[in-house]
Amino acid sequence: MTYEKIISDLKNKIYYPIYFLSGEETYFIDKITDYIAKNVLTEEEKAFNQIVMYGKDTTIGNVDNTAKRFPMMSNHQVIIVKEAQNLKKIEDIVYYAQKPLKSTILVFNYKYKTLDKRKKVYKLLKKNGVLFESKKLYDNKIPAWISDYLKEKKYSIDPVGSRLLNDFLGNDLSKISNELDKLMITLEEGSKITPDHIEKNIGISKDYNNFELQNALIKKDILKANRIINYFKKNPKDNPIVLTITSLFFFFSKVLTYHYIKDKNPRNAASILKVNPYFIKDYELAAKKYNIRKTVSIISILREYDMKSKGFNNVSTTHGDLLLELIFKILH
Fold first, then answer.
1. What pLDDT digit, counting tens, does each position of 217-238 carry?
2. Residue 8 falls within a domain, yes or no?
3. Number of structural domains, the chain?
4. Residue 267, Cβ neighbours under 10 Å: how many?
5. pLDDT tens column, 157-168
């Protein structure tokens, strides 16, 4: 079952006796858990019928016994097991899952891990409850997620702004949503978020970032590229080399793919590259500046400097100097 379907059912008061929420992306796990905690019971009902446990402080036996109780003056009781990944013998919930109490809504907040799909407990939870696996979104999905998140709250963002946030914050949805929530507080409802808003309120430089470095490389603007790298050297904590190399690696990998696309119609190319059509002009220009042989060479260089940044074949060169070397080799 998808996140959207689970939330929709909850809003329509369609409840299941067990919610087993697992996976690497903690954002969706916490959102579902929080919605159940805040909305299933009234404040009066919560006093007697809502219990929060923690995996490291309880046992499956205790969870089982509590789940088998009937609610007091309410149609449901809600039991939330946070940090359920710390529960020992989690598979033993199989006995309760065979015939869960319909008046109990039992929520397992099981982060960073998933159950073995071959086990009986997995099949029973899927049959008698909601089994949700929260997967990390790929980087190319983050800008669209940012736009949807803001649209739901009656805001919007331009493509460069969402790309800027993605490059700086990665694919940590909790971190991104927290920054967006803080940003929206400063803006009127219905506002369109721009790179200027992001720089002023979040602290991401709109002029010195991986996106602008990429643009400088596309245009072979040596002066601008070196200015950005020198800024990175002075602010290494905010501009870690691993993010810069990863960002450039994904970009030039897509440039290589673009070279081999037969139908380079912007809409078709955007679909194949899985990028916003707004940015196709960047790949078109980069393909003109860097032929196939040079693009393959750049990808190889990026792999080499990724290894050097981790200490392989590099004893004393700083990350800042490695970036200067890297950009020189890309541009020449």
1. 999 999 999 999 999 999 888 8
2. no
3. 3
4. 10
5. 988 889 888 888
